């Protein structure tokens, strides 16, 4: 009998703590801040994963300029003509390089190089880290 009493009392206390432990009725409409604390070990694992799984492929280099203004002009002209192909301006000291495309195979890069060779006769294929395109 005493055991049933303590068991019932304990059960009532646990239920009341879980039910009334948090105030869910807020009349205040202000937003509350949530602080997320990320462990450094998790950040290191994420960086290691990103470094290990870089996607390498090919791009076509259109130009290599000593200042950024000519490189930007070349990139802008390319974007106007070939809107579906991504163009990148990369700074590798001391040059600003304009590279286009994210080709997984060299064959794809060669095909596109032939397509643009009339506009960019000195373009050439380089191995580079490419962006992963998600198919919708």
Structure, described:
- By secondary structure, the protein is α+β, with helices and mostly antiparallel strands.
- It has a domain at 56-129: Alpha-Beta Plaits, CATH 3.30.70.
- The protein is 42% helix and 23% strand.
- The chain contains 4 helices and 4 strands.
- Strands 2-3-1-4 form a 4-stranded antiparallel beta sheet.
- The protein is elongated, with a radius of gyration of 30 Å.
- The termini are far apart.
- The model has no long low-confidence stretch (mean pLDDT 83).
Overview in brief:
This protein has 4 helices and 4 strands. A hairpin with a 2-residue loop joins strand 2 and strand 3. The protein is elongated.
Largest sheet data: 4 strands, antiparallel
What CATH first level of the domain at 56-129 would be assigned?
Answer: Alpha Beta
What is the rounded Rg? 30 Å
CATH superfamily of the domain at 56-129: Sporulation related repeat
Helix content: 40-55%
Order of helices and strands: HHEHEEHE
* β-strand number: 4
Strand content is 15-25%
Whole-number mean pLDDT: 83
Structural class of the helices, strands and pairings?
alpha+beta
CATH topology label of the domain at 56-129: Alpha-Beta Plaits
């Amino acid at each position: 009998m005493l055991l049933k009493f303590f068991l019932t009392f304990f059960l009532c206390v646990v239920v009341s703590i879980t039910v009334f432990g948090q105030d869910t009725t807020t009349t205040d409409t202000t937003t509350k801040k949530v602080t997320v604390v990320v462990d450094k070990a998790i950040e290191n694992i994420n960086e290691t994963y990103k470094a290990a799984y870089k996607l390498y492929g090919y791009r076509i280099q259109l130009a290599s300029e000593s200042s950024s203004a000519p490189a930007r002009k070349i990139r802008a002209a390319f974007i106007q003509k070939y809107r579906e192909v991504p163009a990148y301006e990369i700074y590798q000291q001391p040059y600003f390089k304009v590279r286009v495309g994210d080709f997984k195979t060299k064959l794809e890069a060669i095909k596109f190089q032939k397509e643009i060779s009339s506009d960019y006769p000195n373009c050439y294929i380089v191995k580079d880290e490419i962006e992963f395109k998600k198919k919708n």
